[in-house]
Design a protein that fits this description.
Helices cover 35% and strands 24% of the residues. It is α+β, with helices and mostly antiparallel strands.
């Protein structure tokens, strides 16, 4: 999956002249995590919720709400814009974008074309939606979790067992835990117990919540 296929296209942006109060309202309503600052089609930077909250110095808290509102109405985004904006191209693999967001603790990434023009935005909500989709959660079925040796042919063997029972695989996912490879397979059946039993007969260690219970108690 590529960033360009999942990025947001219709999202709110602000300009350097946008009042901070308006930007705060837009951010609350959009739930984007941050607002991109654009002028004349050019991406200039972004503002975060914490930037908006800290727009006025703490001494302003001694003023009454009308005075604060007046001062805020005169304060624009250009005074608090951050220019260290991280961007990605639409052809970037979405997992690479997610890894960048995790590594840098970013609320989102601007998606730009090869001329640097802003064409989209991707944030944590999009990433969570992609995770749910890739794991096939919304398609129902049942999931089977098993420990897999690091050797060729594991998924081929498991797919053969499932296909031999006349069932289809909805999705697969691979994770690492405690130095072991854990594979999750979602199968189009309301009851995967027969598949689990067949896999165990083939030497696979099928796992469930009880196998990890000691780690969260």
């Amino acid at each position: 999956m590529y960033v360009g296929l999942k990025m947001l296209r219709n999202f709110v942006t602000v300009t350097p002249k946008t009042p901070v109060l308006e930007a705060q309202k837009l951010l609350d309503e959009s739930r984007l995590g941050m607002l991109l600052v654009v002028e004349g089609g050019k991406l200039l930077g972004y503002v975060r919720p914490e930037d908006l909250s800290a727009a006025l110095p703490s001494i302003m808290t001694s003023l009454d709400k009308h005075e604060i509102k007046y001062l805020m109405s005169k304060l624009s985004v250009e005074r608090i814009i951050r220019k260290d904006i991280k961007t990605v191209a639409p052809e970037v693999e979405i997992e690479a974008a997610a890894d960048l967001m995790f590594e840098k603790n970013l609320a989102g990434l601007a998606v730009v074309d090869h001329q640097g023009g802003l064409i989209g935005y991707i944030n944590r909500s999009v990433m969570l939606d992609v995770l749910v989709e890739e794991m096939g959660h919304r398609e129902g079925g049942s999931r089977i979790t098993f420990e897999a040796d690091d050797r060729p042919g594991v998924l081929y063997e498991v797919a053969g067992i499932i296909a031999g029972m006349g069932l289809s695989i909805i999705s697969t996912g691979t994770f690492f835990h405690a130095g072991k490879r854990i594979v999750v397979v979602r199968v189009a059946t309301p009851d995967a117990s027969a598949i689990a039993a067949a896999m165990q007969d083939h030497g696979y260690k099928v796992m469930g919540p009880m196998d990890f219970m000691h780690e969260w108690q």
